[in-house]
Every structure is written in structure tokens, then in C-alpha cells.
Protein: Glutathione S-transferase C-terminal domain-containing protein
Amino acid sequence: MAYVNPQGEFTRDQRYIATRITEDGRDGYPVEPGRYRLVVARACPWANRAIIVRRLLGLEDVLSMGICGPTHDERSWTFDLDPGGRDPVLGIERLQEAYFKRIPDYDKGITVPAMVDETTGQVVTNDFAQMTIDLSLEWTRYHREGAPQLYPEELRDEIDKINKAVFTEVNNGVYRAGFAGTQEAYDKAYDRLFAQLDQLSERLAGQRYLVGDTITEADVRLFTTLARFDAAYHGHFKCNRSKLTEMPVLWAYARDLFQTPGFGDTTDFVHIKQHYYIVHKDINPTGIVPKGPDLQGWLTPHDREKLGGRPFGDGTPPPPPKPAERVPAGHGAVA
Structure:
């Protein structure tokens, strides 16, 4: 399976299943405890967002989670972490089965995160950007006591503006560099990526979080790219002007979030590296996975408290992850 665009610039296919799970069920899928399964892969930055938001909002008891392995082939993500290679709830080996069950001739990417209706085994949506917003706004009745406001109404315009820039230039920008097929396309992507990272550094030099004084959807979206930067994007995608650890403001900001419940404890560096270095064979044909980087720095003091801010606003941190959902020992930062 080829990822590099030999014609030049990488363009992400953004055709997603736009069905939504809402409080009023207007698309035919009302919010119901125990009805849906969030299928993720810890390796994937887009899925990692959904894992974080679900955890911060305390939706574990009403929205189950299936975890795919870190690698996939041209067909689909697979449930190779589960006994017998089958998801224990959906009973399928490949996420592709849930897509085809709803849309037999589905011809787009089989992506995570995906919401699957447990009653039918059919995928409902894979629209990752809308998915986390809906977890905040449509599932409110089932949020834990003390759940943070990740998408507060008074900040939505600013959050949306930041999210658009971060997605275009950073979240997708690293892929635009990594999958570029010509020097010109790569150079352009590289310059755009680091120009935006420099702007974000300037913004975060004087404030603890991207928007307002609490963690919002915007921070979740930036964090998952920063967490993968030195482990994958710096080398594998040639985003090598600077490591994250060489960008002081962003490194401190990322450590601040990493040390916040819901962020670092959902980050699996082993899966991250296995995914990028094994799956993208046209970039790394040997399939060799690097041993580094050293992860101990993620737990060092960040000193961002001096900027003020309240991570969860008037709310509280989430409790520790359920035992079955913990990142395996040795896969996270070393204490």
C-alpha cells in the first residue's frame, strides 16, 4: 500500500460518514447508554483525541471502547490485541466488516475512530472532528460529575479558528511533509508546519492553554500531534528542523498536558512507533522500528503553573483509567 503521492503534494481524503449520534436522534441514532462502541487504535492521533475526550468526560460506563492493534494492511484495522483476534463485543476481526455491514460498496478509507452500533454491528460515523464535539455537547446527560467544558459556547468561535489552523498546518501538516512525493511539495509542507508551530509557541508563551484558561477541544487536538512528534514525525516524516524537545514553549506545554490525567495515560509510544514505521513501507521499507527516543523527559517539571489557568475549570480530574483500558506497562513514559 502506497502513501507517498508521486505527483507531489499529499491531499487527505476527507470524505467521512457524516451521520451523527445526537440527543434527539435526528439522524436515526439517538444517544443511548450501552448502544455504541467507540473503535480506536492508540497509535492513531485522530483516535487518540476520542480516547482522551471520552476519558475526560467520564463516558466509559455508557460508551464502550474497542482497541485495534497498531498496524493494518490495505484492507482494514484489525482486532489482533483481543483473544482470537476478534473484538469481544462486535465479534469481528476487521473494522472493515462494520463498514461493509452498513455500506456494502463502501469505497473510502476504513478509519479510526469509528462509532459502531452494537445492536446492528454497523458503523455509524467515522467523522472524527465532529465526533469529539458531539461527545461534549450531545452526551452531556451522561457526563461524569466534574466533567470539564471542552467546547464552551462562549469560546467556540475562537476554538474553531484555532482548530482549523492546527488541523491544516500541524495535524495534517506533518503528513503533508511525510507523504510528499517531490522536493518542492516537501519543502512547502515543511515551511508551513514550522511557521505554524512558531506561531503556536508565541501564543502559548503567555498563556497556559490555547483558548481561555482551561483545557478545551483545541488542546486535545494539538496534543496528539505533539505527543508523536519526536517518536515519529521528526525522523519518519522528515519534520526535522527541531525536535519537540528543542522547542521550549511547546515542549513545556506538551509536558503539562501529558502530566494531566487523561492525556499521558492514554498515550502508547510503542503502538505509535510500530504503526508509523511498519505500516508506511514506502517510506520505511525495512520496517525497522527505532528504539528511541528516551521518554523520561515527559515526566520532568514543566513550570507552566506560573501562567495560571485551571486545567478542568470548575470541574475535577477524571479517575484513573479502568484496568482493561490502561496503556500496557512499558508502553508509556518511564516513571
Observations:
- The CA atoms of residues 71 and 279 lie 6 Å apart.
